[in-house]
Amino acid sequence: MANDATRQLRNPVLIAAFEGWNDAGEAATAGVEHLERVWNAGAVAALDPDEYYDFQVNRPMVSVDEDGKRSIEWPTTRLSVVSLEEHDRDIVLLRGIEPNMRWRAFCAELLSVATDLGCEQVVTLGALLADVPHTRPVPVTVTASDPDQAEELGLEQSRYEGPTGIVGVFQDAATKAGLDAVSLWAAVPHYVAQSPCPKATLVLLQRVEDLLSLPVPMGDLAEQAEAWQHGVDELAEEDTDVAEYVRRLEEARDTVDLPEASGEHIAREFERYLRRRDT
């Protein structure tokens, strides 16, 4: 791995997302990419892709610059660092691709860099396709090495059992390495699985904000999420079968005691407002 992981960071936390099976609507990786952009992250490390990727599955990309010079970008996983001077804290961002081989070695190498940087907490982001209506708030579930964290965040603890992706494996490896590990999962409506899904990205970043008690600049994500929902509304109106299916999903969802109607949710929203106002 090529890296510059010798710098001393202030109370750093690692936030990670991976393209692939764990990234419905690209909601998770779009979240980390948004943080890279709004926080002006600087690269510190990149994996050697030869060790973990099948280039017939994840092919390298050729690009041509304005001078006609061609270059190849190889698929890999990268880490970058953000310095939040006003909060006296640093954030390590990890964005990559689910590997095709050697998953345990992949996780061990990434966690080695994270611990060298001083990270004691790992937050992974994921998104899955689910039977949820696009017209309702995006459900978020959590898995955590400390079960009490789910209750503190006002989120449902995941009870999923079955095949897992690199997000589940990476969280398990972080927990076994003695790190505080939390995984946030957004549910994306399966009937609009096309990327992107800014509504899911927005809610994941809001939960990161709650978890870290740090204001996250959202930019125009709220406007993108609203435009996305209006677009899906129009598509559903054109197909009576889809419209009826959405209505049934809404009825099923409305029978659940939504956290958005609870005092805990109102309190979280007010705390988020105060953090942003202070910033």
TrEMBL record:
It holds the Pfam family PAC2. InterPro entries: Proteasome_assmbl_chaperone_2, PSMG2_sf, Rv2714-like. The keyword Ligase applies. One of its GO terms (molecular function) is ligase activity. Keywords: Ligase. This is Carboxylate--amine ligase. It comes from Jiangella anatolica. The lineage of its organism: Bacteria, Bacillati, Actinomycetota, Actinomycetes, Jiangellales.
